Amino acid sequence: MTQAGDLRHEIKLEQQVTTPDGAGGSTTTWQEVVTTPARIRVLKGGETVMAGRLQGTQTVVVTLRNQPGLGDAGSTWRLTSTRSGRVYDIKSITPDERGAWLDILAEIGI
């Protein structure tokens, strides 16, 4: 069970926003939805071969309090650690049984 004292990191949850550029194309940017304290736990690391070379990955579980504005969060969003600046790709979001906490499974390439 996560407690308030476990939330030692600060993260930003951002969603991808596409806006027309006026010339028939579009521009994609990241818009911050919320900045909040969180717990980051490293699950495992791994290596895969991509384009003939090794690519390292690190999987983490980020736990945070559920809050308004996160109902639409999904794998098209990203998570950024404000302390280290690391950007994580969100793989899945799972609420606890009461809906008070969210566990976010995320991955970063290293």
Could you characterize the architecture of this molecule?
- The structure is a single chain.
- It is globular and about 50 Å long.
- It has no helices and six strands.
- Strands 1-2-3-6-5-4 form a six-stranded antiparallel barrel.
- The model has no long low-confidence stretch (mean pLDDT 85).
- The chain has 110 residues and is an all-beta fold.
Radius of gyration: 16 Å
Helix/sheet category: mainly beta
Please write the string of helix (H) and strand (E) elements.
EEEEEE
What's the total helix number? 0
Q: Note poorly predicted spans.
A: none
Widest β-sheet, arrangement of strands:
1-2-3-6-5-4
Overall 3D shape = globular
- How many β-strands, per DSSP? 6
The biggest beta sheet is recorded as: 6 strands, antiparallel, barrel
Kindly report how far apart the N and C termini lie. Answer: 29 Å
Mean pLDDT: 85
Give a short summary of the structure.
By secondary structure, this protein is an all-beta fold. Helix content is 0%, strand content 66%.
Which descriptors would you attach to this protein?
110 residues
